Amino acid sequence: MLAPVSRPISEEQEPVLKWPDRPVAVTARDVRVLSGVLEYVYIRDEVLKDYEKRDEFDVSPESGSVSYNGWWAVSYGHRHGRNHLAIELRKLYEGVPADVVKHYNKFAVTSGIADADRKLHGARHIGNRAKEVVYTFLDLTSALADLSERIGLPATQEEIGTFGTADVRYRGWWIFPLLRPLGHVSSMNMPRTEFFGRCTELFKLLEHIKPAPLRGLLIHLGMKKDVIRDFGSIKLLATLSQLGKIVEHSGLNLVSDFVQVYSQWDTTAKLVELQPLFALNSLRTGDVHSNSTSMSARVRDALSMFGIEEVACITGWGRALDSVYETLSTSMTDIANLVRGIRI
Q1: Does residue 6 lie in a domain region?
Q2: How far apart are CA 81 and CA 226, in angstroms?
Q3: How far apart are CA 233 and CA 217, in angstroms?
Q4: What 8-state DSSP symbol labels residue 14?
Q5: In this structure, is residue 140 part of a structural domain?
Q6: In what order do the strands lie in the sheet with 66-68?
Q7: What does the pLDDT average to over 89-118?
Q8: Do 138 and 206 touch, CB atoms closer than 8 A?
């Protein structure tokens, strides 16, 4: 049981547990006597999944720490490569319920296995990738807010994209319920259905860009309301970006030369910077309406956009999800730079 309903009245019976790098099983008392300072045990990060499912636990995707209502915390450790945690053994036992220690023990591996995995899959983990996605999103909405200010129709970052950079930085991005799922464990053997579910969670972040401020911005510039009446957030963002490209290539000014800029606007123009956003839209429902093992051409094209080949995902879709996170972060950075470069 991961979350006790009350504090124990008497001492829990100490479990006798075998840790992979230790020759014999130990109790908590043994650990206090025998464990050296900064002796780490290595844990598969899948240990966090049970805690991620429940709101009463605070899980930090960046460090892999877990706490429960101020009662206990597993916090003396760090991420060790993509798939593992390194936790100080003494601190794991200090003030942590026996059931929690036993839960972690089930996911323990040798240091050799953890080191080899880090060498194979790299040091970057889901906490790194999720943080990048969140902050590149915030950079994009900040750029849009700056553009609104320069054009003369001010809108705050929160009005455009729900979240503010200062608030997110102060509180920690994973504290926000709408952002927390982005940092959930991403196992290498992730099933295909889970991969598409995670793409849905990523697209939800983009859906926090509100259409009204972007539509108002375009109308304020001189675009007819009927032309963009049915455009959603991403299409409106694409429209602004298309106009920005025209300004970049022509030397025109978006405000004073809007009639000329607008005359060159091609609604079918596909910008490299925007393609990952549209591809993610295709992936978010990739498996929802089909029970077959085949994929539609649209989904295959979207996967290809992220550099993903289905045949390479036979053993799991974790690495594919890494590619989606990283490509999306690059895309939002590129769009933000494009928006900031628009001449006003």
Answers
A1: no
A2: 51
A3: 12
A4: P
A5: yes
A6: 57-59, 66-68, 72-74
A7: 95
A8: no
